[in-house]
Amino acid sequence: MSSPTPLKVGVLLSPTTQLMDVAPLDMLGMIDKFYAQSYPEHIAANALDIEYYFVNETGESPHSMTGGFKLAVTVSALRFPRRKYACIMPTHRVTTLQHSISTCPPLDILLIGGPAPTYRPSEAIQHFIQTQYQHVRHLLTICTGYIPALYSGVLDGKTVTAPRGLLPVLKEEKPDVKWVEKRWVRDGKVWSSGAVANGMDMMACFMKEEFKEQGTLTEMAMGMADFARRGEAY
User: Fold this and answer.
1) Read out DSSP for the chain?
2) Does the pTM exceed 0.70?
3) What is the pLDDT of residues 25-75, one digit of tens each?
């Protein structure tokens, strides 16, 4: 994947989203221009220009997550410094506008982190996902992140995975989706992962397949992170 303009990557935050659900985004961040400044120049030359958008329904910020973390919701491209604080905030903003589903621009990639299994998305969230789905190159769901996408109808007819313990019920209650028991699976522009830790497995495969022009850079990032690659099958 290559683009002459910044790649717009959005993260949809639901109530009780786990920090681990959005952590795979940091793997993508390891091949963006901001992080790649620490790489050798000939490798950093292929780094991606990425804008990150953290979105919730109301635009209220910061957004509370598990583990006591609070994530800034903003329209700007975020750059994360290393901090000791539990509140993750940007070092600067292009604007000071908080970012809600009504103000989010069309995205290239939408990642949906997992809410509680009992969560049901509002009509506004469903409309947001349906609208963004028309624009995105890729939709990624992690763990129970399938729930907002499922209720939005964008998974109908798709092959999708979800947490293993929920699959028997999903197969019975949501037969319009082909549910499979895998760490991750891809069907067209829809990528889904099983348990929360499988989001990292999925992201590694996603990066390898979709950013071939950044192959050496991606391999270096994976090596630096000492990432253990696991296949689709459990």
Assistant:
1) ---SS-EEEEEE--TT--HHHHTTHHHHHTTBTTGGGGS-HHHHTT-B-EEEEEEBSS--SSEE-GGG-EE---SSPP-PPP-SSSEE--S--S-----BTTTPPP-SEEEE----TT----HHHHHHHHHHHTT-SEEEE-GGGHHHHHHHTTTTT-EE---GGGHHHHHHH-TTSEE--SSEEEETTEEEESSTTHHHHHHHHHHHHH-GGGHHHHHHHHHHHT-----S--
2) yes
3) 999 999 999 888 888 998 889 899 998 888 888 877 778 887 787 777 754
